[in-house]
Amino acid sequence: MELLLNRFRNLTVLLLAILAQLVLLAYQVKSNGEVRLIRVWAVTAVTPLARAIETGRSGTAHFLTDYFVLLDVREDNKRMKKELDRVQMENQYLRTELDTADRARSLSIFQQHSPSKTVAAHIIGNTTSSGAKVVIVDRGSTSGIEKGMAVTTPDGIVGKVVDVYPIASFVMLITDPTFAAGVTSQKNRVHGTLKGQGHSTVMVDYVQNEEKLDEGEWFYTSGDDRIFPKGLPVGEATVVRTGKSHKEIYVTPSGFQNGLEEVLIIIEGIHAPIPDTPPGNQQVHLLDPPPAEGSASSAPVLPQPGPVSDADRIVQQYRKIGEAEKHVYGERGTGAPDYNLPLQQKPADSTAPPDPTKPKDPAKPNPLNPSQNQ
Amino acid sequence: MTEFSDAFTEPRKKDRVSTFTWWSMVGIPLAAILFQVYVPRFLTFLSYLELPLLVTVYFALMRRSPISGVLFGAGIGLAQDSVSSHPLGMFGIVKTLVGYFAASVSQRFDVENSMVRLVLGFFFFFFHQFFYWVLSRALLGEALDFDPQQTLVMAVLNAAVAVPLYHILDKFKGTA
């Protein structure tokens, strides 16, 4: 036996190495888990190096653009060059700052307007997976990130968190061939499954040929997958054609259209209604200019919090009915208000709130206060 | 000593074993993996480069020992696995085999010849991609695409990079 092992020593080592890795692989597949310690070490070792390289790269790029590009001009006119050098460096710096501020503002505005709770993250690298579209972001479990969380930008969904480490996470992009998410179309409310294809477009599968869908129609997340909250933009259908068993729908993802450097990870998702109009291309929503000093409308007008879900709308309606019937909820002995009583619609152009006890048209009886009709 | 005796004492090229310092054996694979993690993010066209594989093949060829090839392959493969989103062992198994076969080939050929390196770079890239695809389907049940034409083109490109890369890596080696 010993002679045999010595004779086939190389082959024995090869078989042992492969066997050990097969066992490791089988353990991971069976337990559906991770060999967490090794991965944590590896990612923790690679992340600071990647970050240091990124700092070096951006520094070198700035140095090259700010110095060498301007070197030729200095040769032409030294004095003017010095001035130009200073101005251009300042300009470049400010432009970079502005770009960063724009992106940050865009994310910040989205964060404020989005009902979901999000955390901003920066993409610092790609994983080494062959054919996979997975990126590394600089937020991990210490920032509250968990596996399965949705990742988005103000323009649309980007992917989902597939692995979490203390200071970094892996995000599978929606273009990954193994990615899937529930989506619904904006106009015809067609439900389907979004699938990555390994390149820049994604497809929506499982839509029956009989269902109506137009090219150019937008897709939004449906919330069916329990990962992405309902109502996030996904992209525009660029190709819609009849297939063998299901429609062939190709969608251009909107989340990547402005580059992919900063993303938002949704920590607490809240479903939102699908908007009636497709999202605009404007990166940052700007407010109207402020009113002139001393004008009557210069007083600040605080936005009224609007209803977000159906439950909010019902609560708001009941509150209105209660006010209209002068009913105080929770008070003993008052019974329940008549919830079926139709409320008067507020006219679109009126500025003052209508008095529910006073009929607008004297010819019509006031259903809320019958005594006034007599 | 005569020329005749020199010819006997001087090992033939194909029997010469190269040695490396410990920092080059750790640093070069680490740099290759970092390259794959970081560079394609900015230079997308470089994502076709499988530097960890080229480095595995190089070390296996130069050490000329199948056991070293197995250990190098397994080590580099597992390190690459640990920063991928797939289960640990996929790249490990494929690169273990690549390391073993590369070391076995090195015992029969003069692997310092550029043409031999070009052919080996081409062959091992194709073998690596094909075997990875087979393992993904067989062990993980993943329906990955395998396009032979595209893989052949990528194999040519990787082989073209392997030749100058190996010349650079030759600077780090010593001879036992």
Q: What portion of the residues of chain A fall into strands of 2 or more residues?
A: 15-25%
What order do the helices and strands of chain A follow? HHHHEEEEEEEEEEEEH
Number of strands of chain B: 2
Look up the CATH topology of the domain at 142-268 in chain A: Thrombin, subunit H
Q: How many strand segments of chain A?
A: 12
Percent of residues in helices of chain B = 55-70%
Q: What profile does the largest beta sheet of chain B have?
A: 2 strands, antiparallel
| Major sheet description of chain A | 6 strands, antiparallel, barrel
Principal-axes geometry of chain B comes out as globular
Distance between the termini of chain B: 22 Å
Q: List the uncertain runs of chain A.
A: 281-287, 296-304, 345-374
Give an overview of the whole structure.
The complex is a heterodimer of chains A (374) and B (176). Chain A has five helices and twelve strands. Chain A starts with a helix and ends in a 50-residue tail after the last helix. In chain A, strands 1-2-5-4-3-12 form a six-stranded antiparallel barrel. In chain A, strands 6-7-8-11-10-9 form a six-stranded antiparallel beta barrel. Chain A has 374 residues and is α+β, with helices and mostly antiparallel strands. In chain A, a hairpin with a 7-residue loop joins strand 1 (117-126) and strand 2 (134-137). Chain B has a two-stranded antiparallel sheet. Chain B has helices at residues 3-9, 22-38, 51-63, 66-82, 90-106, 114-140, 148-170; strands at 18-20, 173-175. With 176 residues, chain B is mostly helical. Chain B is globular. In chain B, 44% of the residues are buried. Chains A and B meet through helix 2, helix 3, strand 1 and strand 2 of A and helix 2, helix 4, helix 5 and helix 6 of B.
